[in-house]
Amino acid sequence: MSLDSIxxxxxxxxxxxxxxxxxxxxxxxxxxxWSRVDPTPVPSPALRLWSEDVANDxxxxxxxxxxxxxxxxxxxxxxxxxxxxxxxxxxxAGQLGDGRAITLGEADTNGQILExxxxxxxxxxxxxxxxxxxxxxxxxxxxxxxxxxxHLGVPTTRALSLVTTGEEVIRDVLYDGRPAPEQGxxxxxxxxxxxxxxxxxxxxxxxxxxxxxxxxxxxxxRHFPVHSVGDDDGRLGWLKEVAETTAxxxxxxxxxxxxxxxxxxxxxxxxxxxxDYGPYGWVEDYDLxxxxxxxDSNTKRYTFGNQAxxxxxxxxxxxxAIGPLMDDPNRLYEALDHFRTSLKGAMRAxxxxxLGLGTPEPDDDSLISDLRSVLMMAETDMxxxxxxxxxxxxxxxxxxxxxxxxxxxxxxxxLDSWLARWWSSVDGSPDRGGMRLANPKYVLxxxxxxxAIDSAEExxxxxxxxxxxxxxxxxxxxxxxxxxxxxxxxxxxxxxVGCSMLSCSS
Length: 506
Fold this sequence. Notes:
By secondary structure, this protein is α+β, with helices and mostly antiparallel strands. Among the domains are: about 5-195, no CATH class; about 355-430, no CATH class; about 445-485, no CATH class. The protein has helices at about 10-15, 50-60, 65-70, 135-150, 195-205, 210-225, 230-255, 305-320, 330-355, 365-375, 380-390, 410-425, 430-440, 445-455, 460-470, 480-485, and strands spanning about 5-10, 35, 45-50, 80, 85-90, 90-95, 100-110, 110-120, 135, 160-170, 180-190, 260, 280. Strands 1, 3, 7, 8, 9, 10 and 11 form a seven-stranded antiparallel sheet that branches. Strands 2-4 form a two-stranded antiparallel sheet. A hairpin with a 2-residue loop joins β7 (about 100-110) and β8. It is globular, with a radius of gyration of 23 Å. The two termini are about 35 Å apart.
């Protein structure tokens, strides 16, 4: 089956208020959840990357360069850009919206309904001062990371395809006044929906409570049918689910060492999905104060260790937006408390699995806390450390030396002490199966993506395809890939743009 065979729905357009004007230049839109807009045609689309897994979910076969680039609109599609607002770096930014993403429609296939969206498909009313395009560099990062996260077991949006456009797009990578032409590309993204915290915030901020009510009714009815919006109990039930799935998502980020990099409220999915892969990064060493986003280098708002705090802050902003619809707004604190409880439980369960702990013991929390302190004493590769710990035959630090960038700096006394405590707590028999499922061997480190980008910009997508294949089995040993990809960050990547330094343009 091809994309042409999909049955397309437009529930969001028919059941929520929309913009009376189609397309047009960037502008302020009032009283609407969306604006109809067609993708901008591109000169020479070519399908470069493809997710067979996502294609199987949709019941389609590889192909459709013209559709996946936005050059052809199929019968039944009704393309639109979503309107939303958001807090960016803690400040209210007003109207934002899909500035370079256009939803083609909802695909009703294989027993599920999934929203199909093109990222980098051209100008929308929400593009502000930008062109609505995406470049090959950022598109490769989005495609590979979406699929890598899924196979890691992290809740995420998916990526079906990457199509190069045959055009040049001007970008200033680090916003330092040095714009340069780059190859254009479009990624096809797939999710239950792309509704965000900011989707609700924009209407509350404008005092448009009827549109807010209409959006909430649609959201719960279509995406959370076990809840209702008829009373505070129903609204709170939905908000508690959003809170819980958000907490679970963050615990998975911490488990695999992922840093989102730009946790603005407009980048927070109501489904608890990782969304909008921009200046993300993977911690190479266990540094809770690290952020990959150069825009955040001074404030350190979105660091690795701060993600749970920011998730709670963002949730509080969503609760404020829903407040005008509550009979008793004070009950919203129940949802915030539920987030805290859910996060605490998810984090504790995550750490216990990473360490292969059995029956809960009073000393577990201090065991976890002390390990985190040990990991920060010297430059320690997080992924390699935990993977080696998963197969360690005895409590000897020699089995972990490879995880240290300089074994001379190993905190040997502190590590020996911790290993002895841990080995005793698990009676010399950790849950190795659980540990191997919690501690991946392969994650999509930024320097890996950069190698794929470097090759792709020369017309060679073999590295990108190799990484895509490897990341489909991140918990498997894959000995043929070990020498090249199960390694610490190469020195050339320590301070390279795209590896350690990224921006929202990334």
